[in-house]
Design a protein that fits this description.
Number of strands: 10
Strand content: 25-35%
CATH topology: Rossmann fold
CATH class: Alpha Beta
Number of domains: 1
Distance between the termini: 50 Å
Structural class: alpha/beta
Order of helices and strands: EHEEHEHEHEHHEEEE
Largest sheet: 8 strands, mixed
Mean pLDDT: 86
CATH architecture: 3-Layer(aba) Sandwich
Low-confidence stretches: 205-209
Shape: globular
Number of helices: 6
CATH superfamily: P-loop containing nucleotide triphosphate hydrolases
């Protein structure tokens, strides 16, 4: 039974989550979900950084061309070990989601990547809802015999029972600092606090303490303080 497995996991690179033993399992499909500005990009860049800095290659299937290589480089990602496939350009027969699904299928089947990410976070949810369950099942079957971790970024989970792990994100607070001239200048954003929770897991979590309770983490700006 796969529910009792304890696969090797990839750390997320965020101390608060690593203290709770939350990692991305290899050979499994994981969903990372949350609304806009919920910490999805922060988690994604941190995860890719962890993999590329250890010498493995990553593949990112970017449905909406939202990936920013400059931000990735600033976050310590080794761009020479990252394959980015952009799917937003017009196609006579396929929409961006259909192109992204095909690209992810080919990449997983080809092998050689420690991490494969399918970014559906910026598409309308109804497009993801139209993805057949058979497609998610095919992804699950394709990745389970590999050492790759397959991560899907979304606004809400759609893979259902095919996902071994679902991490849900939400924004908690935004921290603002007053500028010198408060009457004429806007406040500066100095940090955002997020909450991450494991909303579904088919992995043995016996080593974790209260795995389903939210874990808070904060991202600060370069000018904070």
């Amino acid at each position: 039974m796969r529910s009792a497995m304890t696969p090797e996991t990839i750390p997320l690179g965020i101390g608060e989550l690593e203290q709770r033993s939350v990692g991305i399992p290899r050979g499994c499909l994981t969903e990372i979900c949350g609304p806009v500005s919920s910490g999805r990009t922060t988690l994604l860049l941190s995860l890719i950084r962890e993999v590329t800095q250890k010498g493995e290659c990553c593949a990112l299937v970017d449905t909406s061309s939202a990936f920013d290589p400059v931000s990735a480089l600033d976050n310590g990602i080794h761009l020479g070990r990252l394959l980015c496939v952009r799917c937003s350009a017009p196609h006579p027969k396929l929409n961006p989601v259909e192109k992204a699904l095909r690209a992810a299928d080919w990449i997983i089947s080809g092998g050689g990547f420690g991490l494969v990410v399918l970014d559906l976070a910026d598409i309308e949810p109804y497009l993801a809802q139209n993805i057949p369950l058979a497609t998610w099942y095919r992804f699950q079957r394709a990745v389970e015999s590999t050492s790759s971790a397959f991560v899907v970024m979304e606004k809400q989970p759609f893979a259902k029972s095919c996902a071994s792990l679902v991490i849900t994100l939400q924004t908690l607070t935004c921290n603002w600092a007053a500028t010198l001239d408060r009457h004429h200048n806007p406040k500066l954003l100095t940090g955002i606090s997020f909450a991450a929770s494991v909303s579904r897991s088919r992995i043995d979590v016996s080593r974790r303490k209260s795995p389903n309770s939210p874990t808070e983490f904060c991202v600060t700006t370069s000018w904070a303080g």
